[in-house]
Amino acid sequence: MFRKVHHIVRTHGVSGLLHRSIAYVYRRGLRPYIPKQFVRYGGIRICYDRSWSDCLVPRTWLAPDELYDDRPGYEAALVAGLNETVVLGDRIVIVGAGLGVTAVVAALRAGPLGTVECFEASKQYVEVIQKTAARNKAANVIVRHAVVAKSIFVYGSGCDLGPVMSASQLPPCDVLQLDCEGAELDVLRDMTIQPRVILVETHGLFGAPTESVASLLAKRGYTVSDRGPAEPDPSCHCIKNDIRVLLASNNNYSESR
User: Fold this and answer.
1) 168 vs 19, 88, 141, 189, CA distance in Å?
2) What pairs with residue 148 in β-bridges?
3) Residue whose C-alpha is closest to residue 92's, from 45, 162, 141
4) Residue 248 region by backbone torsions, left for phi larger than 0, else alpha for psi between -120 and 50, else beta
5) Which domains does the chain show, CATH number per domain?
6) 79, 71 Cβ separation under 8 angstroms
7) Model confidence over 61-79: pLDDT tens digits?
8) Residues 8, 25: Cα–Cα separation, whole Å
9) Is the pLDDT of residue 208 over 70?
10) What is the 3-state secondary structure (H, E, C) of 206-245?
11) Residue 38, φ and ψ in degrees, nearest 5
């Protein structure tokens, strides 16, 4: 401890030590007892909270996993697509559910007679999705721990990947959402289901460019609409990295319920 304090004083001075000490007292002594606020992504309560006082202190006082602000534009194009296409009683399959925001949106749209089945590669994020669903009372969300097709870029711990399953094992559904960080081309090539609607977040930076995904959807008999960048982004991250959302409609949809 003395060595750490000595290093801080040498590097940042006495004022730096004082600043870090106050931050430590806030994080460890005060923050755990301060009432929490919901954090909303895309209008949905996610599984993380923030203390109401966090906005009153310097952000440098907080650890990276405590820096949560509302993100109204989170997965905006996917959320809009689900709100537009999901109807009561629909069966929805989601490959790559992330924080569970789109799973909750789909579950609320489909209602108690509908189902949302998620396939998530990361064990850590399986738990995150389940917590987000519980927080929003979305009891019709089921989460499977599995990699569909192959893992290209998976959030969470690299050692907690689920078993690999073929896209041909995906269950029949009315709406399919793919947000699988580059594996979308492999899923679309190998799947045997023909949902009424397919929503795909493309990832050109991971080898699944929008043009290729759109072409494959068209070959499968879908009418494809480009809904633009996945999220509103002042830094143009989605535009630069070709992260867009495609909505594909199957006018000949006839899978039985």
Assistant:
1) 56, 26, 21, 9
2) 165
3) 141
4) beta
5) 2-66 (no CATH), 76-249 (3.40.50.150)
6) no
7) 777 767 788 899 999 999 9
8) 16
9) yes
10) HCECHHHHHHHHHHCCCEEEEEEECCCCCCCHHHHCCCEE
11) -65, 145
